[in-house]
Fold each of these.
Amino acid sequence: MSDDKGDKEEAGRTNVEHVRPKGVSDATVEALGVLSEALETVERARGHLYAFHQLTGSADLAVGTAAELLRRAGHASQADLVENEIEGRNVIPDHWTYQIVESYNATYYRPFTDVEAQVRQELASGRRHLYEAEMKQARRTRGHPAHTAGPEQG
């Protein structure tokens, strides 16, 4: 049974950003959903790349500390070996990790986000997460306090 007042309150909670524009097909919403999911995967990969950058930097700092401790313990030749061969070493030819991050951002990440935004703008007025928003509407229990359409649009 539908409660008109409840339906109006629920409609006020649905953000227009997540409402399919008129004329956008199911196939288009699905394609945009897959493209959005791909972007989310790229975001995760980028996060792992930053983790790699930070972990490698932390390891390099620890290598410096280890070399210093080896020297203090009377192991100068081993300290020299660690300092000369590992500390400050490129992780791939000619690159420290920050350079890898910068290259990834410039060569892949930014173009990906730009293209995704352009496609979304051209096909769905720039609206995000249409696929997920429609899935939410289909799967929620209307009237249940933990299944609201969205935050109140105050």
Amino acid sequence: MTATAIRPGWSHSVRAAVPPFTEAGLRQILEKAQRWAPYVDGLLLDDMAAVLDDYTPTEHGVDEHAQRLRGHLVRVVHLAMVSKVAEQDGQVVVLIERGRTIRTEEVPTDLPRAVGHLRRMAWTLDELLERLVARHCLGEAP
């Protein structure tokens, strides 16, 4: 459908606008946008720093740190898979597998071994983030 423009001097036909979504479709997109959480945020970097710094978590803090790092690993591994960067970078494949493996391992009950486990998770996360930034899957970390 075309209509003549109202503006004087404009003689081109203009097609009527057709919205790309129905009202229900737009509502669904809005809900998804409202639930969205960034893959790399200050909390992720804070959690990595807390584990990799000289500070050693207490026995009670180990489980909390492990849960948070697992959540970050899930999100970043998912980003790597969705972006298909693994198809182009063998190192990313190795890091994805390492992330999946270490994420599913039980946290040791011995505090020094538990801290080592947390640090391995954090280093894996850090290396994967660096590879994704190098491959332009995400911008520089905040």
Amino acid sequence: MKTLKIMLALALLSLASLSVQATEIRDYHKDVIGNDCKTCHDNGIKQFPSDEACLQCHDVDDLAKQTMPANEEDKWQNPHNNLHYGKDVPCQECHGEHTPKKQPLCNSCHTFKFEGYKG
């Protein structure tokens, strides 16, 4: 009986710790997604979302248009359609939902300033 009580207590404790792991999502995503983690975490809750999950709502061509630099000379610096990767940069390289990225992938070598960067 004592073992059963200990097992039950451990089970309840583990359930409580799962709710503690829940993290905030950004307001602009919360309005669309709500609290359904599986909407984005299509590879499992503890895995990063696939690019396909992001592209269900975000169109890469629209993103490339929105992030096109105004100066024609700088168009190769577009983070969503760039010289190195074209439109194939994995979303998670620059963006994080629960913990915003400090800098985009490009800034590890270049010193661009992306005005609308949200991490």
